[in-house]
Amino acid sequence: MRLCLLVVLLLPLVSTRAVAQDERVVKSPDGKLEFRIFTAESDTTHLDRLAYRVNFQGKRVVETSYLGLDILNQEPLLGEKPGLTSQKVLKDSGPYRSSVYEYIQNGSLGRRINVEIRVWNNAVAFRYQLPRSTPLIELVIADETTEFELAQDGPAYPAGGYGATYAAVSKLEKNSVVTLPLLSQQPGIGWIAIAETILKGFPPANLIRLNGTILRTRLTSANADSRIAYEGTTPFTLPWRIIMIGSDRESVMQPDILRELNQGL
């Protein structure tokens, strides 16, 4: 009987470790907003993948969402089977906190991917840095696989939030295209906006709905029939992906933060 009870008591601990492993946290200056990066097993490939969550004032804003890139004719995804090699604090004072986490893909002949994170009191931003490595000297990106799983369902407003209203995110057709920036009301939290910065020569992104409230980044291509979204060389840094939080639709966009990120400061 004691053995059965011990197994039951340990189950929550085992489950928690399986969901989030090697977790690191970057918090805002006021400590209320936090970005958690970790590895978690993918439901589809059953491989560990880079993933993240966002919490605000103790409430979940973004559920476990996967990170990574689809490199043309290379498997698995860049961001699967990751091993954390180092972490650096870039900024620990001022209006935001910033860190970069460096990963190497196990069994990939040294493919590397770094994730740089910035956290303000009302926004988080992250981007991929691809160091030079033998398999990625010539960089050919087929697509980006960054996900945003909204914790709460709510109406979605495309392109700044002042045009037509989409249905609730979960009611959008599967694989329907959602333009950026995207605004969505989150009950009990306020409003969030998902946006990106512009990088000359790199294709802009849309979001597509997968299931429930899961949205995934899709890079546009100049050639609709092309399997290639971007060609270049490493080292290379991709645009910022940004999640902003506000009390209402009018205040959720943060022009100062967007301007700073677009200027590369």
List keywords for this structure.
265 residues; Beta-galactosidase, Chain A, domain 5; 10% helix; 46% strand
| Oligomerization status of the protein chains | single chain
CATH topology: Beta-galactosidase, Chain A, domain 5
Specify the helix fraction band: under 10%
Total number of β-strand segments?
20
Q: What is the typical, i.e. mean, pLDDT?
A: 88
CATH class wording: Mainly Beta
Radius of gyration: 19 Å
Straight-line distance between termini: 61 Å
Structural class: mainly beta
**Strand residues, percent:** over 45%
pLDDT under 50 segments (min length 5)? Answer: 1-18
Order of helices and strands: HEEEEEEEEEEEEEEEEEEEEH
The biggest beta sheet reads:
9 strands, antiparallel
> Given the C-alpha coordinates, what overall shape results?
globular
Q: In the CATH classification, which architecture applies?
A: Distorted Sandwich
What is the number of helices?
2
- The total number of structural domains is 1
